[in-house]
Amino acid sequence: MNPWRNTETLNALSELFITAVNYRDPTAREHAQRVRGLAMELAQRVTPVLPVRMAVIGWGALVHDVGKIAISDEVLNKDKALTNGEWAMMRSHAELGYRLIAPLETWPEILSAVRNHHENYDGTGYPDKLKGKRIPFIARLLRIVDTFEALTAFRNYREVHTYARADAIHVMQDQAGYYDPELFEAFVAMIKADS
Ligand SMILES: [Fe+2]
C-alpha cells in the first residue's frame, strides 16, 4: 500500500506540518485543530461519510495551511493592513503548500484541502478560481469553517476583531456568494444547535 495513505504516516506527517507552521505563526496549531473539529462535525451532518473519508477530512483540515511555512515573517505576522503585493504573497500559501505535498501521492482530498481551501463558490477565490461544485467537497467545507474559526478566534497579540459566534455568522451571510449554499445552511444550523 502507498505509505502516504497510511494512518500512522498521516498522523505523524500532519503533526510534523502543524509543528512547523506553528513555529512561524503561534496561532496555527489551535486554529488547525478547531478547523478540523468543525470540518468533521459539518461533514458528518451533511453526508454519511465512511470512517476513512472522515479521517482524510481530518488530515486535510489539519494541514490546509502548510504553505504558510513559505511566507515571510513580515507578511505572515504583520499587524497592519497588507499591501497588494503582500496579499499576493499571502495568497500564494495555497499553491506553495500544494507543491510541497503533491509529490507524496497521498489522498487527493488532502491535496485539494491544501490547494483549494480559499476557492469561493462564486468563482472569485484562489488559486484556480474554481466555481460551484467544481470545488472539491473538502475545500468547500474548509472555506466555511476556516473563515468562521478565523472570525471567532481570540488572538490577543494581534489587532484583529473577534466576533461572537452569531455575529460571525452574520458577517459570513453578507459574503454568502463565497460559500456552498447547502453546506452553509447546514453550518448555520450546526452553530445554532451548538450555541
Ligand atoms: Fe489558508
Can you characterise this structure?
It is built from ten helices and no strands. The protein has about 200 residues and is mostly helical. The protein is about 60% helix and about 0% strand. The radius of gyration is 16 Å and the shape is globular.
What's the SSE blueprint?
Layout: H1 7-24, H2 28-46, H3 51-63, H4 73-76, H5 84-91, H6 93-101, H7 108-116, H8 137-152, H9 165-173, H10 181-194
Bound molecules: fe (ii) ion (FE2).
Compose a concise summary of this entry:
The protein has a single domain, classed as Orthogonal Bundle (Hypothetical protein af1432). Helices cover 61% and strands 0% of the residues.
Distance between the termini: 43 Å
* Overall average pLDDT: 93
What is the helix/strand order?
HHHHHHHHHH
Shape, principal axes of CA atoms = globular
CATH third-tier fold name: Hypothetical protein af1432
Helix content: 55-70%
Q: In this structure, how is the largest beta sheet organized?
A: none
Q: How much β-strand is present in the residues?
A: under 5%
In CATH terms, what is the architecture?
Answer: Orthogonal Bundle
- The CATH superfamily appears as Hypothetical protein af1432
- Pairing-aware structural class of the strands and helices? mainly alpha
Integer count of domains: 1
Low-confidence region ranges: none
**How many beta strands in the DSSP annotation?**
0
**What value does the Rg take, in angstroms?**
16 Å
CATH class value: Mainly Alpha
